Amino acid sequence: MDINLTPILTSWPFLLKALGMTIFVSVMSTALGFVIGTLVGALRTYGGRMTNVVLGFYVDSMRAIPLLVILVWTFFAFPLLIGASINAVTAGIAGLGLHLGAYVSETIRAGLTSVRRNQMQAGLALGMSRFQAIRTIILPQAIIRMLPALGSLFVIAIKDSAIASVIAVPELLRQTQIVAGKTFRPFELYTAAMLAYFILCYPVARGVDRLYRRLSHLGSS
Amino acid sequence: MTAAPILVFENVVKRYGALTALAGVSLTLHRGEVVCLIGPSGSGKSTLLRCANALDPLDQGRISFDGHEVRSSETSVRLVRQRMGMVFQNFELFPHLTVLRNVTIGPTTVLKLGQAEADARARKLLAKVGLADKETSHPSALSGGQQQRVAIARALAMEPALMLFDEPTSALDPETIGEVLSVMKTLADEGMTMLVVTHEMDFARRVANRVAVFDKGRVIEEGTPQEIFTAPKVPRTRDFLSHLGWHGESK
User: Fold this and answer.
1) Do B109 and A124 touch (CB under 8 A)?
2) Distance between CA atoms of B16 and B58, rounded to whole angstroms?
3) What pTM was estimated for this model as a whole?
4) Residues near A108 by Cβ (< 8 Å), separated by ≥ 6?
5) N or C: fewer beta carbons within 10 Å in chain B?
6) Rounded to the nearest 5°, which phi and psi values hold at B14?
7) Of B152, B3, B6, B159, which Cα lies nearest the Cα of B70?
8) CA within 13 Å, CB half, A196
9) pLDDT higher than 80, residue B183
């Protein structure tokens, strides 16, 4: 098999822009997923029974439906429901974020529950409201404890952004497919894409691990 | 004691399921007074403290603090807690915060004090408990005695009218108990009103104005340390003290 790197050399600005889109979609959907997940996790831990049931339904739905189906539905079906079109990037970020949020919420919930009950009492004894105690005392410890799991979810979010290629988000995999189709060099292009994902995700995984080793002592009450 | 009552328990009853932790306790704490609660484990001493600042709700009876009833409504309880410092057996410092931030978090979060003002207040208190050089450390880097002194500073940072101590030395190594007790002694000497659950009979004898002996959810005897330790009237008190190796000698 002969290797021809010319297509990569000539289309690299196009692919670099696609990589930028992958990073943008990953970061935005992670941010959305972490905000949703933190809120849902906290509300399920400290809220009433009804809140728990309603939000539990959201979490279980997201875990029961394939991500691919959620993305396709968000982009092709949801606009028909609301009678307005949404662009692929917005749909992609929303679908990925909502899906991720369910997993983040379960992780946060486990973290919050693991913090000793007396930590909350110590906060209340200072005159804090429950909300203040959760925000300043319980949640920071929960996040530190759950750093390895949350880091894995971040890496998964980067990798899952590739699924958004099916709704034509111009991210790395989608644009690589286009170049591969035009140049008939699938081996070189898909290998390059695979390496790009690895180079992107590997340092994130290592970095979170190192961060956790430096911070873990701050999370053990 | 002529000072005004600050904390009054009237016939307080607290049950946990089938277990009656407090079976009708009445006790009055006056301003500037140090009252020690002693008695066997599980006799309800700690429960009384937790009821005082409404960390546990009452089943019956009434607690009033500074003339106002301590009820379980969120806002009134928060106001009461701000003026009642609490020190826990296991310190309960916040592990993710430095020593300085542990002390400032109450004032900045609850009293909305500015960070600079809170820092100044905290540094003064850390100096007072002998830990001025530890402000940038995290709790995990401190000994038990040091952690408990930070916890005392944290409670004092709210400038409370009353301090509750829940077995503050029970989780400590013997060699660090003294440093915590001496901080508490200093507080008492400065006129702080204190309600102290303790197994340190020597501290109770030397520092308390009054001692209340608990057994099975009741106060079985109450009096000056002199009365309790040298001439206990109730046989159960004598049993309890002799189990601790205390034989009523006076000094």
Assistant:
1) no
2) 10
3) 0.89
4) A37, A38, A40, A41, A42, A45, A139, A142, A143, A146
5) C
6) -140, 125
7) B6
8) 24
9) yes
